[in-house]
Structure formats: structure tokens, C-alpha cells
Amino acid sequence: MKAIRRFTVRPVLPEPLRPLSDLARNLRWSWHAETRDLFQSVDPERWAASDGDPVRLLGSVSPARLAELAGDHRFLRRLAEVTGDLDDYMTGDRWYQTHSGELPAAVAYFSPEFGITAALPQYSGGLGILAGDHLKAASDLGVPLVGVGLLYRHGYFRQSLSRDGWQQEHYPVLDPNELPVALLEEPDGTPAQVSLALPGGRQLHARIWLAQVGRVPLLMLDSDVEDNNFGERGVTDRLYGGGSEHRLLQEMLLGIGGVRAVRTYCRLTGHPGPEVFHTNEGHAGFLGLERIAELCEDGLDFDSALEAVRAGTVFTTHTPVPAGIDRFDRELVAHHFGPDTELPGIDVERILRLGMETYPGGEPNLFNMAVMGLRLGQRANGVSLLHGQVSREMFSGLWPGFDPEEVPITSVTNGVHAPTWVAPEVFRLGARQIGAQRTEDALTVGGSDRWDAVGDIPDQDIWELRRNLREQLVDEVRVRLRASWRQRGAGTAELGWIDGVLDPDVLTIGFARRVPSYKRLTLMLRDRDRLMDLLLHPERPIQIVVAGKAHPADDGGKRLVQELVRFADDPRVRHRIVFLPDYGMAMAQKLYPGCDIWLNNPLRPLEACGTSGMKAALNGCLNLSVLDGWWDEWFQPDFGWAIPTADGAGTDPDHRDAIEADALYDLLEQRVAPRFYERGQHGLPDRWIEMVRQTLTLLGPKVLAGRMVREYVERLYAPAAHAHRAMDPGSARELAAWKARVRAAWHGVTVDHVETSAATATAELGSTFGLRVRVGLGELGPDDVEVQAVSGRVDPEDRIADATTVALKPAGGPDTEGRWVYEGPLSLDRTGPYGYTVRILPAHRLLASGVELGLVAVPSEGTGEGAGVLMR
């Protein structure tokens, strides 16, 4: 019989055990081994059955066992120690509190998904895991972050396979009362709520759930409340589900409702209000509109409010392809804003203008969430050096007249939260070398360029560690594979072969990620005979563990999964290659440490960062990857191998895949496998172990989320907070009025004549010439602009590369024609073909960059000095 109603029965803990509840509700347990060990000792069998979730564990332990523990003095001593450690962690000074300089009182960090732990399944892939690692690292560093997201009642989806290998999706209902979250409540005990106005007089209400991620509160909005109609209750049903309007409502709730949730949380708890708002991808971009509306209610006009909001906003883009960005029909967005709907005090046209693709190649009727994010954020970044470059090119249309390298999008390369992803065995090896506290500090705060202590670990210990981790992975794979085949309909008698799947002494390759086409899950199958030879090699075999989910609406991705599964089902190779369904955090934490090689073969440059290889590297796994994302930035032959690419513009896609697959096979056959199986005089693979050692010593400190968050604080959050404080209402009005005046008058700004003191077309390195420029400023004055000399090496078309800019100084004017003269030196600091030009940019003390307005005046053809080429 089926129950007509479901509710959660919470355990009543004996008084001495009450601290267990606090420990279970703070998600620090997910990366703190001592806390997990304590919970495991409560009841090891139930701990395993609860998949390592303390909330589920405490809900299943018998009263008799709880009574027994309440009288166990040894357990109570451990409980007191772990509770005291958490208290110290939550209240003590950390990196942020000891950092010099003016830092934000608080930062609000918005993301559509957060991967904190498998016990809180609110993520689909890399974006969510990155957001979770950002929160954990901020907690470890003491950064006063407030996370904001949605609570999806079905999460993303659970994946299984049909008998013929087709992906099947399942959406289990998540009961928040069974998750490590608690309702945010008003002083009278009623749930705190936020509301949005919808067309037709309807309302979208949402409760606020609080997940405590160490020191960082994570606010999660949930629309499944009785005050909503059926349709509105389903707004937060699934992550990345539904059609356009469904997604738009999710993003309005995340952005607008999220700001209101932050204000509510700060009111109820006394938490400092955020000075900086960080938008993790464009999904939360509407947060800027809500903040503009707040300021307009306080008396600012729209343009001034926009300047005030921009000053304290950071926008991070994660996608290198336009298809990865949410875009909505203009009319759909207009339908949800304005009179009788949301933000009625703001003109709908002003809202639309922020997101419209008003640049060459844009779709004029589409509202682009990333474009809005860039227009609402004074500071923006990509997530690796290469991705920053790709982003500048992709969004250069927003800054016409500027070369892509000057587009104001910087980069902060992603990192991963080492305490979450480093296997306990790896941590213990480090602790044995330098002590537990120093190891923990190295993995969380970071700050050093090298982990030299790794050099003192004996080869034998490193190799035994790697073998132990590989063996654990083999055991895990067999358990998961057996469960998968049972789901596919196989009987016990058919599954005896699984006991021989994988070998703890064989070179093990991992490949696990989402399955869009650009990640090329099946590139390894390009030449199946050659792959079979590698898998079955008599002296140097390889084995491969593959996992990944295709989006439910992506049949192309599902076909790739099926193709891989069918190959792995072949009795000839099924002991050497496996596909594990339902890839998630719990599987990943076993997979990364157990692999010897982490394979990544996307189409370059479509991988924005690709953090899975970082997690593998922290466990001594070597990377075998296309030079994309973070690997393009930090690859060295000491750390692994680079797969050559054939990414020229004229290369046929099928031909390119064939070339790159051949390169992959060649590397495996000729370099990777021989290096793994080669033995030195002590019977160990000395050269392989040295690569593991170099990976940990030199790459380990780079890939930390602690390093990433410190960069965000110093390079983006602190400047944004400074700009936010400077942008008081008077300054905001001043800047808005100045921008309007400059835009209106810019047509009158001209470069009229350029001359230098250079007498010849050749000169010696280190020479300095005088530069004299005559400009027209129209209705503007010298205080409104900066006149610059831009110089550098030139290509055959006279385009300046690697440019140096020098501000010129006014030397006289205005003359009778209203022209001004600017002068300055031009230093020749490099050899070869060299050229210069002159340009005029807007200048104001409150601008983050002269490029910000997208306005520039340059010489017309033939304005003096032969177009500015000095030497050839």
C-alpha cells in the first residue's frame, strides 16, 4: 500500500549527545575526516548504509545504541574534542582576518547550483562543484561569504542504463527535512519568505533554507510552498529543467529573490550586509536589477543606481561558446517586468537594453544573460588564462573599437578544494612527513609555490600509496558495476565475470565528466582495433574507467554514452574498460585517487577550465590532456602529456578527430604505458614515480581553491568593495551624468594631426622620440579624456601586437579652432618592425578602466606620419 502522506521523524538525542546534531548540520563534516570518523563510530554498518550522511545516520540509529553512547566516556571525550575543534574553526581568526588592507565586510556569491556533498545533491557538473569548492575554501580562509542558490526538489537527475546501454533518467523527490538544511525563521517561528510578482496578479513565494558550509551560510530558495499555485510550486522542481519561461522564472527567483533572501538573512542574524555581489555565470544576473530597484526606492535615478550597482559587482563567465549561455526571447522578458509585475518602478525598456545583443553578429530580439552580467558588473573574469582570452574575443562586440586583448575581462584560474578531493591516504602520507596541521594548512590556505617536503617521501611509499588507491578503485568499480548490471536486468548467474574486472597492477585511466559533444567521450573509440590492442597488450595493458551524464534533452549525448557502453559490454574487453552510471561526487571521490592517468580530450578551446584533472593531480594522478583550460596554462612534461591538436580554422571536424585520436593512441603506446611499466634497479618505476612527485610538488599548490579564492579577494573583491564605498549617491549621480555627457559629445572628439621628432625610418633600441598630437575635444575638456600613445611590434598588416600605452600631457590649447596639443615621449623598447598610433579614451576617477564605456577616437587614414609606422 502507498502512503498518502510522508513526514520525517527526527531522533531525540540524549542530552550528552546533543552536539552530534550541530556537527551533522554543519557541512564541514564533508571535508573534515575526524568528524566523519566520529560519526562512523556511532554505528559503522548504518554509516555505510546511509552513504556517509550524518543526518540520515542519526535518523536510523536505535535508541538503545544512543543510550549506550551517552554513557560511553571515551566516545564523549572524542565528541567534545571534535565539537571544540568546530567551535575554534567557526570563531577563530583565519587568513582573511589577518590580511592587511581594506577588505569587504561581506560578499554575496550567487550560483544556480552548488556541489557541497553527495548528501545535498544540488549540482549537475563542473559549475556546481566549482561553486561548492569556492564556498568551502572561503570558509577555510575566513572570507565572509554568503552563498545564494535554489533548492531543487528533484536535484538534477539520477542516471541508470537500459539493457542496450541507453541512458535513463530518474528524479527522486528530495525532502528538505531529510537533508542537512534548516528553515530560516522569523522571530515568531514562522518560516521566512520572499515573494516575486508575476503577470496576472499572481505571486511566486519561496521559503529560505539554510545550509551551513563551515563558516559560510548558503541560502537556498524553495518555491514548493502551500501559498503558491501548482505551477509556481514547480519553479524549483529540477535543475536545468523545463522550457524558456520555467528557466526565466528560476533565474528571476535566484537573482531578485536571492537578493531579498540575503537582506532577510542579514536582518534576522545581524550578518554584515554584502558590499560585493559575485555572479557565478549569467543565471543570477537579475540580482543587479533588484539592487538597482532598491537604490531607486531610496531616491536615486536609474542611471545613477546602475553606476552604484556596477561598482560592487563581479561577474564570472564559465562558458567559451555562445550556445552555453541562457538567452530569452525579448517579449518573454518584457512580459515579466514592469507595471503590475516585478520591478514596476523601472522602465521595461531600460531592463531590456541591459541584455540585448546590440552588436554586430548579435540577435537583436534575444535577451542574453551573460551580456547583462557584463553590463551590470564593473569587474568580470574567465576561469583560466586561455578562457579569459576566448571570452575577450567572444564578447568584444560590447567594446567596439578595441582589440580583444583590451576588453575588460580578466581571468582567475579555477582551483579545487583539496580537503574534499584528496584521499585520506594521501593526507596521512603528508601528515607523516610534516605533521597534520601543516598538511591541512598547505591544502587549505596554500600560499607556497612548492611542496618541497614531497621530495623526502621514499619512492617505495609513493608507489605503495598509488597501488593501494588503485586497488580501492578496483573494489569500488566491481561493486558499482554489479549494481548497474542488476539494474539493467542481469541475473546473478550472469555476473561472475565482474569479479575479474580491472586489475590493481594495470595502468588505469580515468575519464569522467558531463557528455556534451565537445568533450568527445568517444574519441577513444575512433580506432577500435587499436584501442583493443592497448587494452589487451600482453606486457603493457591499460584499463579505462569511464563515467558521465548526458543532459536529459540531449539525445546526441545519450548516443555517445550508448556507443561507449556497448563497446565496454564486449566480452573481449569488458574486464579492461567499464562505464559506471550515475556519476556524482561520491563516485568521483573514489575515482580521482585510484587512477594513474586522467584523460581529457575536448575540442580546443571549448573547455573553459576543466577542474577534474586538478582533483586527480592532487592525488598523484598524471594528466593526459589536450592543451585547453587550465592544462594549457600549467602543463609541463614533468606533470603528464599534452595531446597534440589539429584545431586550424580549415580543418574538417572528422579529419581533426582522426588526427587527434591517432595522437592519443601514439602517446599511450609509445610514451605513457612504457613509462608506467618500466622498472629501475629496485624494481620500481622510478621515472613514473618522479613524475608523480613533481606533480605533487609543483602542480599541487597551483590547483588549490584556496589559491583561487585568495586571488578573487585580492584582485576582484577588494577593488570592488573600494569602488562600492566610493560610489555614494552623490558620486553615482556625478558618474552617471558624466557618462551621459561624454556619450552625447563623443562625436566631436577627433585626432587631427600626429607628428614625431623621428628623422628616419630606422632607429636604435632604447631611442626616445618626441610625439606631438593635435586633437579636437568638441564640448569636452582635458579632464574628460586621456590621450594615449599606443606602440609595439607590428605585423605585415601594421597591426600592433603586445602594445604599450603611454598617457600624453596637454601642452597647449585650446587654439582659435578649439584644438588642443598633447605631447610625450615614445621609447623604442624592442627591436624589429615597430609602430605606434594615438587614441583618445574617456577618463574619470570612478572608472575601473578607460575601456569601460566602449568609446575611442583614433586617427583617420593618413593623419600625419605615414600611419604611424616608425621602423620596418
Short description:
The chain contains 28 helices and 28 strands. The strands form 6 sheets. Strands 1, 2, 5, 6, 7, 8, 9, 10, 13 and 14 form a 10-stranded mixed beta sheet that branches. It has a 6-stranded parallel beta sheet with strand order 17-16-15-18-19-20, with helices on both faces. A 4-stranded antiparallel beta sheet has the order 21-22-26-25, with no helix packed on it.
Structure overview:
- There is one protein chain.
- The protein has 872 residues and is an alpha/beta fold.
- Helix content is 38%, strand content 17%.
- It has 28 helices and 28 strands.
- The strands form 6 sheets. Strands 1, 2, 5, 6, 7, 8, 9, 10, 13 and 14 form a 10-stranded mixed beta sheet that branches. Strands 17-16-15-18-19-20 form a 6-stranded parallel beta sheet, with helices on both faces. A 4-stranded antiparallel beta sheet has the order 21-22-26-25, with no helix packed on it.
- Helix 10 crosses helix 11, helix 11 (302-311) packs antiparallel against helix 27 and helix 11 crosses helix 28 (729-745).
- It is globular, with a radius of gyration of 29 Å.
- The chain starts with 18 loop residues before the first helix and ends with a strand.
- The model is unreliable at 866-872 (pLDDT under 50).
Average predicted local confidence, pLDDT = 93
Task: Give the helix tally.
Answer: 28
Rg, Cα atoms, Å: 29 Å
Strand content: 15-25%
- Low-pLDDT parts are 866-872
CA distance, first residue to last residue: 87 Å
Class from secondary-structure proportions = alpha/beta
Total beta strands: 28
Percent helix, as a range, is: 25-40%
Outline: globular
Major sheet size, sense and barrel closure = 10 strands, mixed
